[in-house]
Amino acid sequence: MVVDMCKGVQYLNEIKDSVVAVCDVVLHADAIHRGGGQIIPTARTVIYAAQLTAKPRLLEPVYLVEIQAPEQALGGIDGVLHQKRGHVFEELQRPGTPLYNIKAYLPVIESFGSEVE
């Protein structure tokens, strides 16, 4: 297995938008031994070990879909979303209007061909 400094361990994907929380740390008493040269390589090794021991899984890409529609269309929209494995997580009426705001997650692969439904 090849591990590059800027790549992830699994499949050599770049690591982006990751956060590592340091819960406990013990530093050397001398300031000369507390520099980045001593801390960064150790932290890098710990993060790589965490990636290797994690249980990797593939996640299906999904779209966040926002739909504005009248009340009469809600049944049809729910039907199409459920047929395409979508998950509606918010359905609110806009105050002062007959329109509803619908927010749902829709798998990317299921979004193709939706224009005919």
UniProtKB/TrEMBL annotation:
Keywords: Cytoplasm, Elongation factor, Protein biosynthesis
Protein biosynthesis found in the keyword field: yes
CDD domains for the chain: aeEF2_snRNP_like_IV (cd01681), eEF2_snRNP_like_C (cd04096)
Pfam families, A to Z: EFG_C
Protein origin, superkingdom: Eukaryota
UniProt GO molecular function: GTPase activity; ribosome binding; translation elongation factor activity
Record-level GO cellular component terms: cytosol; ribonucleoprotein complex
Elongation factor EFG domain residues: 57-113
PANTHER family for this protein: EUKARYOTIC TRANSLATION ELONGATION FACTOR 2, TRANSLATION ELONGATION FACTOR-RELATED
Full protein name: Elongation factor EFG, domain V-like
Record organism: Dillenia turbinata
